Here is the input.
Amino acid sequence: MWRKCCTVLFVLLSVGVVASSETVFRTLGGWDMPPAYNGNPFAPGGVGAANDYIYGYLFFNNVISGSFEPWLATSFEETPDSLVVHLRNDLTWEDGVPFTSRDVYTSFYVGGAISTWKEVWKYVDRIETPDDYTVVFHWAPEKSILAKTFIFDKWIRAPYHIYGRWLDEAVTIVTLRKTIWEKEAAGEDTTSLEAALDAVFGPFRESLRAYKPERPIGVGPFKLGKVTADEMVLVKRPDTPWAETIQFDEIRVGRFTTNELAWAAFRAGEVDIEKPTTPEDVVASLIAAQPNLRHIPVPDFASFALVFNQERYPFSEKAFRQALAYVIDRDKVRTIALRYGSTVEYPCGLLPSSLEQWTRPEFRTQLNSYPVDLAKAEELLEGLGMYKDSSGYWHSPDGALLEFEITAREGYTDWIMAADEIARQLTDFGIKTTTRIVKGELFGPTLSGKDYDMTIEFGVFAKFHPVQGYTRLYWPTGWIARISGAPLQCVGPDGEPLDLKALTDELMATPDKSAQMDLIEKLAWATNEYLPVLEFLEKRAQFLILDGVRAAGWPEYSPHPTEPNVWVPGPEMLDKFGYNWRFATVMWMAEGTLVPVR
Amino acid sequence: MLVQRIAIALFTIIVSLTIAFFLVRSMPGDIIYSLAADKASSEGIPFDVAVEEVKGMYGLVEDQPLYKQYFTYISHLCKGDLGISVQYLVPVSKIIVTALPWTIFVCSVSLLFSFALGTLLGMLTAWKRRTFLDPLVSAYASITDATPDYLTALVLLVIFAVNLKWFPLRGAYSVDQTPGFNLAFIVDVLRHAALPILAYTIESLGGWALIMKSNAVHVLGEDFVTAARARGLPDRRIVVSYVGRNALLPSVTGLAIAFGGMLGGSALIESVFAYPGIGFFFAKAVALRDYPLIQGLLLLTVGGIIVANFLADILYALLDPRVRRQR
Here is the structure.
């Protein structure tokens, strides 16, 4: 009897689940589990990984080519005073209500009220909707070359017929904030305005957050079918203009918990695309198990850097920072910390993936690549009056042993590995250095309180334009500027004074590309010379694509000429993966190129 | 006597919660930075923009004095109200009721399996301690103790879910199933629970076996066992009634504590197998400083341990007549 029971149980447990459909696209993602999950994109627990499949942008930003691809809108016109966007007139929200300009208006005001969206609202004065399918963004006096990009970067996800009830308060909040920013810039007192803002914002936020529909209402080609703690099912909507070309009936998103689980899912052939950070040997093992798996590293538009606390001696000395740059083997650090990243050849605030696009060849010859040169480093340290003792350790001119820490954030294993390797290299050179790992929630206060010597941090983020990186370095509110205490003025190559904040401000407002390059070169030179940070690698997202098993028709890619198990993305993939890979897959499905394998 | 024990248990719960209340609120750190750094990284937006956005989305600050918050909390607790999660705006009790059954199901089955098997194995090892079984069990316990539990879980995952495809990779049940008391759903739940239970059992049964072996070896040296042997009692009876029953007593306390502790969730089961449970909400609550949720979950864990100990005391008395007589 006991044996029979065991046999029956084993058979029951061993029965495989029959696939529900052949036209299913599978990926991984994150969301808050029920009962926290809800359909309000403006509330914690809202929407999660469904976002990219059910909502849409006005235009898709192709980050490398700099072009904009129509999605919810068809075209746009620019005038000196405004941006006029023409919307598609054949779309409806999931509940059947037509998609109109009021929805765009509501999305920008409600989204801007709850999440600030300073990068949009600082440069947009107001929005008008002259008809159902036209939206006019009127520019504010302060200009930004990225305003249009950031407008197109925002999700349209607040249908007026649902979120219109919060619109009046949202308009008030956005208007008050804009007034505060203007007065702050003019150095005026904003206390009473801030009190007025708080009085409106608190109830607005609580009321908006309290709205918890079971499922979101989107305007995109898919809708949320079902969500559990572990899996989310997006179902193709039959009533969109994309329905004819999209051949996938469902997108299934498994919950992403750990890289290891993602690797197991790829090994089992259960995922079509994701980008888990994956070591070289695991990549090889996965490809051996799944010959159709492609490993495609794509620039992530962010760098890892060593930031110096310039309020502490000797990091306040330019020569000392340069000496460290000559000691640290950045390529070795990259190999250990993030094998598939790319080494920063010229640390200058520009990502390797955009250096050639934004600087002239003759300028690049002026940049210092800081090759490993220990003799040069020693010369610089001796120039500061420092000396080496008989045991090989360096001392400051007053005899103190040079002994430092590099902080790194707990849980960021690539940062910790980079910190360990840099510490090892500096110690080998004679500057005693150790790694200090700081808990995530303490990391920010540690840096902003300047309680560190050197730290690993993101250097620059510059997805759309180099100015994004320089605002981080040279605007007083920029994170690196705040934690490094680096001066925002310096002396230029010909002895002229350089105001780095003013240069960044000017770059932000200069539309002409040649003039932008002039400004970028000045900022790049200053960054390369003064090293407020030492960038050592540019992140690359490691895309794993299971090509030809469930889905086929991915844009062009080719095997890397020298590196095994690496494929190189073609221009289309590079352009779109660099911006939003989830949405890119939806676009390729809508174009009819990414299709199920039947 | 029972009333006194209940009173002590309640007092312990209140003291624990009071300490926890003030401890969690004095945790250092800046959550806004932490969330903004993640947001800036994942969305590629400037850090300062991410900070503003996070403040807008999560910027709830308790403006009441701490002592007032404490008395409000205790008074609500007395009415059975665990409060509302400040981040999710969902009653804490609803979150617990949704997530806890999965944790209880998979953790308790795992715990019972590992305890039963481990205890049996420990007993056998002690009884046959000069045979191959003794070094074998010791080696097994050492290996599983030294091996990170997630590694064991991953090996099982690769063998049984990836290569053999006998079991699903993750989750508690397939999204295609309709939850309810139907055979298809039950089978699906069992299939999903099989690997987490197996991983947990493999990892922890060695520990139970060693504890039991140690206890049993000690009991085997007692006079009453020698007397039982001299009386010619069968081995089976000596092992079960004389040695087993006495050697089991210390393990019962361990089991009670483990039962209470499981209510905090299992990192192994929830992360490697993406199994839904209370641990996900615990981690989120701590990360977001969602005090009502942290308090609610702590109450669950503390209460679980105290209740389990209370039950262990009762079980102790049932297993050991000496304890019964003392009372």
Summary: The longest strand of chain A covers residues 293-308. Chain A touches chain B through 68 residues (CB under 8 Å). Confidence is low (pLDDT under 50) at residues 5-21 of chain A.
